[in-house]
Amino acid sequence: MPPPLSNTHLRTPFGFDELLTYLTREILRSQPENIYEFCLTTCQQLINERNNGILSDELIKLDLTSYSLENQEE
């Protein structure tokens, strides 16, 4: 049986906070009727932009040296 979440320190993957912030802002701006479909479409668009090298700087940390694994091991 997995341990209870209250006793577990969860770490978010690198870039997850930026993705959630971006999605939240776009959802609030667009007010979609179907939030799940909107998220799917938006994430597919972001994947296409990433693959074409045109992903928003907002979602890419250009200075990866400021990120360290120590931040994830707290």
From TrEMBL:
Boundaries of every RIIa domain copy: 15-39
Pfam family membership, one: RIIa
UniProt superkingdom: Eukaryota
CDD domains: DD_CABYR_SP17 (cd12100)
Protein name: RIIa domain-containing protein
Annotated source species: Rotaria sordida
Biological classification of the source: Eukaryota, Metazoa, Spiralia, Gnathifera, Rotifera
